[in-house]
Structures are given as structure tokens and as C-alpha cells.
Amino acid sequence: MRHGKKNNHLGRTASHRAAMLSNMASSLILHKRVITTVAKAKALRKYVEPLLTKSKSDTTHSRRTVFSYLQNKESVKELFDGVSAKIANRPGGYTRILKTGTRLGDNAEMCIIELVDYNEDMLTTTGTAAAAKPKTRRRSSGKKTTDAQGSTDAPAATSGDAAATDSAETPAAE
């Protein structure tokens, strides 16, 4: 039985799995998103999130520790210079997995794993959704006042009706 063994072996030897996750983590850091299978994305998330947390403290020791996992100078430089500045305030959850359907050849579940702070479309959508949220609240029916409702609806209706009658009469007069 495999009680307490959380590691997904992904059908690979330990050295192959470590090399694959290292390469995928470097690609994720450099390109900010990677298209892969769901199983690999979940394994990659467990691999790369501790590295992202470690990048918040820019010390020689943390750089060497991260380099021992990534084995790529460019990705380590990008991680400590660019990515760590964006994720400095975030307490965790640096990656997002977006499922995209199945692959045509073998029907494997595919997804996009990306760094959360680099998807500009999601960031702008989240900002507008947060601003729109208070507008969706409804007032309970017991708290309506007839004076306030009647005074706001009446002038709008009369001005709209007057404009409609003026435009209707103008073509008839000509």
C-alpha cells in the first residue's frame, strides 16, 4: 500500500522526473506560462512554489539553493530580479492552473499553468469584478420609501415623454 506517499511519479525514473520538473520550472519562470498536462502541472506547482517563496529573500544562500533545483542561470536571474518583486506581497499561491480540455492524440487532460501576477487579462477582470460587486446588491422590499421613489421616477418619465412627443410631432408638422 502507498499510504502517505504523495509524490506523483509521472511514469518516470527519479532522475528523469527531477530533470523534467527543473526544465518546466525554468520555462515557467522565463515565459510566465506553460502548456502541459494536468498531472505534470500539479507536480510542477509543488516543485516551483517553494522556489518562488525562497526567491523573496535575495541572499547568496537562497540563490544557490534555487540554482541547485533549476540549473539555469537565466531563470535564476529572472526569478530573483523580476518575479520576486511582483510576488513580494503575496503570501502564497503563485501559480494558476487553467484547464483547456483534452489533447487530440491521446485524450490527455491539458492545461495552462501560469504565474498569477503576470496574467494581465485576469488582473483587469478581477479589478472590474470587485468594483462591480457592490452594484449587484438588492435593497430589501420593507425599506422602500414612496417619496424617494416617486420623486426620482417622475421627472425622468416626464422629460422622456416630452422628448418623445416633440419628435413625433415634428415630422407631422412638416
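Second entry:
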Amino acid sequence: MDSGIPLLNGAGVVALVAEDGDYVAVKGFKEVRKVFWIETAKLWQIALPIVFNILCQYGVNSVTNIFVGHLGDLELSAISLTNSVIGTFAFGFLLGMGSATETLCGQAFGAGQVNMLGVYMQRSWVILLGTSVLILPIYIFAAPILKVLGQQKDIADLAGKFAILVIPQFFSLSLNFPTQKFLQAQSKVSVIAWIGFVALVMHIGMLWLLIYVLDLGLTGAALAFDITSWGITLAQLAYVVGWCKDGWNGLSWLAFKDIWAFVRLSLASAVMLCLEVWYMMSVIILAGHLNNAVIAVDSLSICMNLNGWEGMIFIGVNAAIGVRVSNELGLGHPRATKYSVYVTVFQSLFIGIFFMAVILVAKNHFAIIFTSSKTVQEAVSKLGYFLAVTMVLNSVQPVISGVAIGGGWQALVAYINIGCYYLFGLPLGFLLGYKVKLGVQGLWGGMICGVALQTLLLLLILYKTNWKKEVEETSERMRKWGGHDNTVDSLVAST
């Protein structure tokens, strides 16, 4: 088992590590710099393959939007509405339910209970498949649901048709998410990246063939979406069964043991993540009630698409810091956990500022990638400043959510999200957008305020966190879910 802090070559590095594998207290700029580079290397060894894979998977969505967007404004609005409202609702809920697997697999791997990883993954498969059946009516009745939410009839009808066609893609997520978490917890991330890359290349070819050569339009886009998603899922499953002998010991009835307790943890994870994902989804819904809804939805969707590209990077960092936190807590290393969190937050903020600068420079030009409509391009340009600010906030917020998943704080973050997003940000956006008549800019500006408040509160919580106490709670969780471990005993001995 890895000691948790690999000793890199270089004078003085060994002095930073105690006998138990955790850091000693770091004092002085020279030691801080050394820890910064050690943690940077450990984080990005995990994060880069995950980021690459997520960019490839998000590229599947984005490239589909680009191909469909050149069919016409109505088609672009329809697929954007399906992906932003129906797809995001389902994606967020299932990803959240799967995040319980990330917490438990990461902490179990750190504590040396590798044999439990396959059981946790199977338990999550069962829960997510059951959840998918319950959510299925949202896809079947997407058109009337969107009409009830106030969307235009022609857009809602076309979006509803597309939603039914992508039901197979939706069900693939039930197996995809737990399998990814299983692999990420063990830092087996390179294979995920290669699978994502091959899938993206094949998807582009299928879109060209089905939409332009066979002239299947939206139906062709949906078929490509379904085939690509199941290809990714089956490839990951094949790798788990064939090459993960330590964590995978075959199907087990243990997957059904204590399943309701696992459901409760999954629901806490789902609520936390869904409150974040649905918050930005609600901007699209509210924009659909504005005058000239097609232009409003199209311009906002293009901005959200670009924001999503940057967001995918930080969802990758989210997963990596979740792995780092859960592994180090499982190993009983409070200082390593704390330093890893601080380094990741600092680097993420720096990256967010860089993307903000890029958007401000290119705000009058990037819309041409998605649409040929001059009207939509002008509308997107006006939203450039809001997109730039959002990119900075979205660089830090997912990282803190990853820390919450790694530490098992999902319920606490869910309460903060309710207050900041739905009691403050959303009402403020509605007030500015409709009452003050600022339109899309008012909606987005108010909701940015909610994200800013949430980020500040979570940063305060990180600053106040007692990481030794978090190690003790992790050990108790491992005793409950996977048997006894001596993490607390080793922590007490070391202090």
C-alpha cells in the first residue's frame, strides 16, 4: 500500500514527511514551496487523465450541438433545451447518487480495504438503475413538461421527440458513473482517458454519417449519442472485469446488504450535486419566458456550452481532489489532506482567472462556432462579461464540492446550496430579469451572486475544518461499511 506521500528526489523533501507517511508541520516559504510542488504533482497525475476524459465526453455533447445548430435555430433550441433541462436534471441526479461510491471507494482504498470497492460499485449499480426507472417518465413526457415550464410549443415538441430518442443514453449512465468512481478511487484513470478519446473520434464520424450523409437530422444525432454512450460504458466494464482483479471479485450478493443505508448516503450526495446543477439549468427555463425566447435561449445556451467546457476541467479537478482527500483521510493523514486542498484551491483560482481573460478578449467572436445567425451572435456578445465572471467562480466551487465528496460532507453542502442558490440567488435573478427588466443579463447576474455567496461560505468552512476530526470520522465510516481499520489508532499514536 502506498504510504500516502511518495518521497520525490530532491534535498530536504524527506524532512517534510513523518514516520506515519503524513507531513510534518510546514513552516517557512521554502517548505511551503516544496509541499506545493509535491501536491501539484500528485494532484495532476490523477486530474489530467480525468480532465481529458471529461472533456472528451463533454465534447460528445458539444459537437452534437454544433452539428445540429447548423441545421437551424429551432433545432439548436430543441436540443439545447433537452440537454440543458431534461438531460441535466437526470445527469445531475444520477451523478449525485453515484458520488456516494466516490466517497466510500476512495476512503476504503486509502484504508486498504480494496476488496470492498467492487461491492460498493455493484451496490451503486442497483441503486442507480432503480433511480433511472423512476426518472424515466421525465424523458417520456418531456414535451408536456417543457410546455408546463413555459417553453414555446414548437421548441418543446421537438425537444420532447429528441428526449425519447436518447433514453438509451440515459440508462447507460447508471452503469457508467459507478464504474468511473471505482476506477478513479484507485487512480486507474489513464484507461478512462483513452476510452473517452476513442469515443469522441467515433462520435464525430457517426454524426457526419447520420446527419449529413443519411440525412437523418435530429434522429441521427440521437442515434450517435446512444451508441457512443453505451460504447464508453461497455468499454469501462470490460476493463474492470478483465484487469481489476484486486477490487473486482465478481458479482456478489453483498451488493444488497445494508442497501438502504447506502441509499441514504447516495441521496445526500444527489441532493448536494443536483442543487448545483439544476441551479444553472433554471436560467435556461427562466430565459424561455422572456420576449423573443428563441434568441434568449440560444444565446444563453451558447454561453453555457463554453462555460461547460471550462467546467469540465474543474469537474476533473473535483474528481481528483475527491480521490486525494478520501485516500488521505483513509490513510489517516490530516495534514496531507489539508495541504492538498489548499494547493488545489489556489491553482484552480489561477486557472479560472486565465479563462476569464480569454473570454473577455474573444467575447465578440466565439459565437460564430455555434451559429450563423448574426442576431444570436450579437446577443452572445452582450453576455460576455457575465460568462467571464462565472468562469472564475466555477473554477473554485467544483473543487470545494470535490473536497465535500471526499470527506463525506454532502448533507452540509446541500443545506448551504439551498440557502445561497434558491433562497438568495434565484429570487434575485428573477427580480433583476423580470421586475427590473434586465432580461437574460439580470437573470444571470442575480444567480452569479448566489454562486459567489456559496463559494465564500464553503471557503470559510474549509478554513475552519479540523482535519484530525475528519480522519476519526472516516475511520468510523470504514468500520461501519467495511470492517475495522486502525486509522484512528495510528493517528493517536502519531500525536
